[in-house]
């Protein structure tokens, strides 16, 4: 795994069809965030798990193995190719902040590449504005969806077979750490 964004690609398409949405917990222009439910669970687990075992119980063994490999300075790629993943000790402390090497490695569920992984392109064109940091920091651009477009996006997603659940508390939990 070369970036933490790859962690979010380890899922089936049905996991991307259940969407949590809600207002972001920061001041400024009203904005709503849409995130696959499965991703909200991963983000919260990454931000709040205290041990590798706790993280594994919350996001699954396969994802933890990939994260553990990401955290290691070096590992035997041949063993990985054969399916022999090194496993972290379940009681070993886990810290998401220690896992990432710099701020720009921290995944953002609004990040352009992550949003494009699940939101239909025509909805991105209609409702999302690509934003860039005022001071380039390496983290890249992200999509913002104005709050006044919430019902339009929800209705169009539902028409395409998505399940949309408003959960401001879950959105706050993803962004409040």
Question: Brief overview, please?
Answer:
The chain is α+β, with helices and mostly antiparallel strands and 177 residues long. The chain contains 9 helices and 5 strands, in the order E-E-H-H-H-H-H-H-H-E-E-H-E-H.
Task: Please explain how this structure is put together.
The structure is a single chain. The chain is an alpha+beta fold and 177 residues long. It is 40% helix and 14% strand. It has helices at 37-48, 52-59, 61-71, 77-81, 96-99, 112-116, 121-127, 150-159, 168-175, and strands at residues 18-23, 31-36, 128-131, 142-146, 163-166. Strands 3-4-2-1-5 form a five-stranded mixed sheet, sandwiched between helices. A hairpin with a 7-residue loop joins strand 1 (18-23) and strand 2. The chain is globular.
Question: What oligomeric assembly is this protein in?
Answer: single chain
Q: Tell me the span between the first and last alpha carbons.
A: 24 Å
Please bin the fraction of helical residues.
Answer: 25-40%
Q: Averaged pLDDT, please?
A: 82
Give the helices and strands as they follow along the chain.
EEHHHHHHHEEHEH
Structural class: alpha+beta
Categorize the overall geometry. globular
Q: β content, as a range?
A: 5-15%
Question: Largest sheet, if any?
Answer: 5 strands, mixed
Rg of Cα set: 17 Å
User: Regions with pLDDT < 50 over 5+ consecutive residues?
Assistant: none
Strand line-up in the sheet with most strands: 3-4-2-1-5
Detail the topology: elements first, then pairings.
Layout: E1 18-23, E2 31-36, H1 37-48, H2 52-59, H3 61-71, H4 77-81, H5 96-99, H6 112-116, H7 121-127, E3 128-131, E4 142-146, H8 150-159, E5 163-166, H9 168-175
Parallel strand pairs: 1-5
Antiparallel strand pairs: 1-2, 2-4, 3-4
